[in-house]
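Batch 3, record 17
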Amino acid sequence: MTGTTDTKPHLTRPHLQTLLLALLRIRRFEEKCAELYQREKIRGFLHLYIGEEAIAVGVMQALTPADAVVATYREHGHALARGVAMPALMAEMYGKQEGCSGGRGGSMHVFDAATRFYGGNAIVGGGLPIAIGLGLADLMQKRPNVTVCFFGEGAVAEGEFHESMNLAELWKLPVLFVCENNLYAMGTALSLSESETDIHLKAQSYRIPSEAVDGMDVVAVEAAARRSVAAIRAGGGPQFLECRTYRFRPHSMFDAELYRAKAEVEEWKKKDPNLRFETWVRENELLHADELQAIEDQVAREVSEAVAFAEAGTWEPVEQLTRGVLMEAKA
Amino acid sequence: MSAGITKITYREAMRAAIRDALNSEPRAFLMGEDVGRYGGCYAVSKGLLAEFGPERIRDTPLSESAFVGAGIGAALGGMRPIVEIMTVNFSLLALDQIVNNAATLLHMSGGQFNVPLVVRMATGAGRQLAAQHSHSLEGWYAHIPGIKVLAPATLEDARGMLASALRDPNPVFLFEHVMLYNMEGEVAADAGAVDITKAAVRRPGKDVTLIAYGGTLHKALAAADLLAKDGIAAEVIDLRSLRPLDTATIIGSVMKTRRAVVVDEGWKTGGLSAEISALITEHAFYSLDAPVARVCTAEVPIPYPHHLEQAALPQPETVAAAARGTLGR
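Prediction for the assembled complex:
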């Protein structure tokens, strides 16, 4: 985590390296997850974030360790960008007890108290009220923290979205809503599910300041997130970013992608946030080729170490099956 | 009335419990629909807004899912929220937050995130509020691992269960039967937290065990009075906690009396009474002298007319008749 309280991104060499590293860690981690899924090391649902990395990476730059994050079932990228350790994340993908959720959650339920990462919520829209509550706790305890709540554009069709927008603004809660608009709620196109497809306008209708951002541009996302977080910390109440993006991979590993044209996917891949940022860095000679290679090498090492950690991990004994349902009351 | 005893209604006992909680726990606050300026749908929180202010007696929009979810989030963020839902029927609008989040977060997070949340709501029939304000769905909630479900039936429990629930690190749900709010009696002036793990024997007896909770406790006690006139000594158990159930107290009583009648204002089919009956069968089958009997609400949405509503509900007479049946009388 490299969060600062600056309101603008400073594209110093270390920061460029930070962003590139963060983008690449997500991409390579998830490519490895897809491979491990084929090898049946990872089971259940696996929702990949590939194509959307710039959003998680950009937003996290604006946070401090005391802030909180609520994410969705497509949250590996958010977890990594927030600082959840990659080995523990990979062990969670395997369901091993060394996983960040003790293996009980899996891909869709990543939690991490150390980084205030509150899931990993697999009910669309269900994370928004929790984010409201985390914000309320900060407000009532007069802490300067921000809670960031990520959700997809599919969530805006849920009642919980509208209830939460209203309550957040009504109580001026310190919450940054980040809508990752990847145009498809599983297989249903935005135009088939929303009467108003300009999503940031919905937030404005609740008087929440909002803007639409190019979600394929990590610097644009970071800049918008810094502005929003600064406004929240200044007491401005909730803020809303609609990040326009695209999911390059199928919804999950079971998706035959019957609902979108291959040409559309290819068109969006030209806007690949990782490629775009790396190309920009390369063409402007902001980092040397060997520096870029060093980042690739570092990520490859980290991913393979994470896989080794997960492989070496252990299965929770079946005797512990009913643990963790209730917490023992303190005497 | 002695100095250490105070006369109080169930409603006032709940209010006193909330007041105590807010006075003794700076992180506690109450939120829900009309809890502040209106004074609470059932007037439980009347006057508390003036005492504690709008930050801690927090009126919410009609957004059950958002404010229950906000309670979960606030609990995660270190607060001790008390969320009031007007009636159990309205709680269905918050089921996502209750079942998918409050009950699962500790487990899904591998033990990292507990949810110290208290949710109170009114339940039950008897006020001619018809089929969307009168149901007894606490048995549904008792189905769900990850939460605790309490039913205060007495003034002591109305006064004391909230404090115990707030001390619990888990989500705790309190179901307050609407017909109990005006119940009046005496409690110790210094009454406070009570044990929330055990059922209570409210009336000892040797011939048959009547198992009840919440609003039906008082019908079971009235039934025991009727039975006493026939020379039948009924033991009456108040479950108090619907999840977890205090199996030992239930089984201990049935082993002694060898007969049981379960009284539940929920419906019979797939309900809490079925669970209790099954527990008795599993643990005390060979001690039984008669099949376990059940007196539940008729399998109908609660009707509006008084005579039909009353006919739908368990009554002292029907409970007594079921008890006599177990004795072959």
